[in-house]
Amino acid sequence: MAPVVGLQRSESLYAEGLYAKVRHAIPAIEWPVYAQDIDAIMTLKRTRNAVILAHNYQTPEIFHCVADLVGDSLALAREAMKVDADVIVLAGVHFMAETAKLLNPDKTVLIPDLGAGCSLAESIRPEDVRLLRQAYPGVPVVTYVNTSAAVKAESDICCTSGNARAVIESLGVEQVIMLPDEYLARNVAADTGVKVIAWSGHCEVHELFTAAEVRELREDYPGVVILAHPECPPEVVAEADFAGSTAAMSAYVAHNRPSRVVLLTECSMSDNVAIQYPELEFVRPCNLCPHMKKITLRNIRRALETMRNEVEIDPAVAAPARRAVERMLAVK
Ligand code: 13P
Ligand code: SF4
């Protein structure tokens, strides 16, 4: 691994030109501190031959200032396969870094905080999947990517919120076991007509939104267009104008340019999209994901400086988990 060199003068000015882009989301007083970390990270990326993949829920100083690739879980998995670098820094949560490692076993995958988890991934263990298989013999197991590699290893195929419908339909069966997000499973069942055996996991961010809140938003902000993530309870999705993955919500805004819009999802998502479309009004009744928020510019910088917090997966788990992810990626 190449040694880290100090900040070069030519790179120390990189952050200067960025502030105009993010100034509505980042207070001026905070910017000089971020700017130092941004310049250091740009140098480290070059020195380490590293790329930063960032999820849509990362804060604007990460998403807009240091990320090489941004997107939803599906895009990050697809992009991870194409990465031409020695090191991948995953600015997101642990299951995303594991997915990147599954698809890049020979690369170094770092996550700036190993404790960046997910309430869905925490809700289910491999032995739970084995028990479900016994209870429903022959029924295929579809596992949301928001799970550990050990749980993926017990499943037939993975899905994300962006391709859940296509994955389920690709199986051509009447019934599936879909784990661990109960609400995503119920939302997909309503969309596809396929009978779904669900688990009782929930996203601690999206489960907080209510149908009453959606009705209140419509009353308070006439004409508002309401987009919801499919991890929201089905009664919320039923009252929204559109439901889709974080990338699908961004695409909806890009194509339809609603003059007044709400994204019922994690807070940074609206911040990031609002930066791209300053002419649109974003109403922001969001909930923070404490796991996504464990990733900061400072710990991205530290991860690249120290090369610590490497993601490792037991090879006996990695092989079947990779099969389930690759099977998902083969679904168009
Ligand atoms: P997306 O795949 O839609 O980006 O969702 C990931 C996630 O963690 C949502 O809470
Ligand atoms: Fe997990 Fe929900 Fe956070 Fe996404 S927003 S990482 S599903 S807890």
UniProtKB/TrEMBL annotation:
<keyword id="KW-0808">Transferase</keyword>
<dbReference type="Pfam" id="PF02445">
    <property type="entry name" value="NadA"/>
</dbReference>
<feature type="binding site">
    <location>
        <begin position="144"/>
        <end position="146"/>
    </location>
    <ligand>
        <name>iminosuccinate</name>
    </ligand>
</feature>
<keyword id="KW-0963">Cytoplasm</keyword>
<comment type="similarity">
    <text>Belongs to the quinolinate synthase family. Type 2 subfamily.</text>
</comment>
<feature type="binding site">
    <location>
        <position position="73"/>
    </location>
    <ligand>
        <name>iminosuccinate</name>
    </ligand>
</feature>
<feature type="binding site">
    <location>
        <position position="118"/>
    </location>
    <ligand>
        <name>[4Fe-4S] cluster</name>
    </ligand>
</feature>
<feature type="binding site">
    <location>
        <begin position="229"/>
        <end position="231"/>
    </location>
    <ligand>
        <name>iminosuccinate</name>
    </ligand>
</feature>
<feature type="binding site">
    <location>
        <position position="289"/>
    </location>
    <ligand>
        <name>[4Fe-4S] cluster</name>
    </ligand>
</feature>
<dbReference type="InterPro" id="IPR023066">
    <property type="entry name" value="Quinolinate_synth_type2"/>
</dbReference>
<dbReference type="GO" id="GO:0016740">
    <property type="term" value="F:transferase activity"/>
</dbReference>
<feature type="binding site">
    <location>
        <position position="55"/>
    </location>
    <ligand>
        <name>iminosuccinate</name>
    </ligand>
</feature>
<dbReference type="InterPro" id="IPR036094">
    <property type="entry name" value="NadA_sf"/>
</dbReference>
<protein>
    <recommendedName>
        <fullName>Quinolinate synthase</fullName>
        <ecNumber>2.5.1.72</ecNumber>
    </recommendedName>
</protein>
<dbReference type="InterPro" id="IPR003473">
    <property type="entry name" value="NadA"/>
</dbReference>
<feature type="binding site">
    <location>
        <position position="246"/>
    </location>
    <ligand>
        <name>iminosuccinate</name>
    </ligand>
</feature>
<comment type="function">
    <text>Catalyzes the condensation of iminoaspartate with dihydroxyacetone phosphate to form quinolinate.</text>
</comment>
<keyword id="KW-0479">Metal-binding</keyword>
<feature type="binding site">
    <location>
        <position position="203"/>
    </location>
    <ligand>
        <name>[4Fe-4S] cluster</name>
    </ligand>
</feature>
<keyword id="KW-0411">Iron-sulfur</keyword>
<feature type="binding site">
    <location>
        <position position="161"/>
    </location>
    <ligand>
        <name>iminosuccinate</name>
    </ligand>
</feature>
<keyword id="KW-0408">Iron</keyword>
<keyword id="KW-0662">Pyridine nucleotide biosynthesis</keyword>
<comment type="pathway">
    <text>Cofactor biosynthesis; NAD(+) biosynthesis; quinolinate from iminoaspartate: step 1/1.</text>
</comment>
<keyword id="KW-0004">4Fe-4S</keyword>
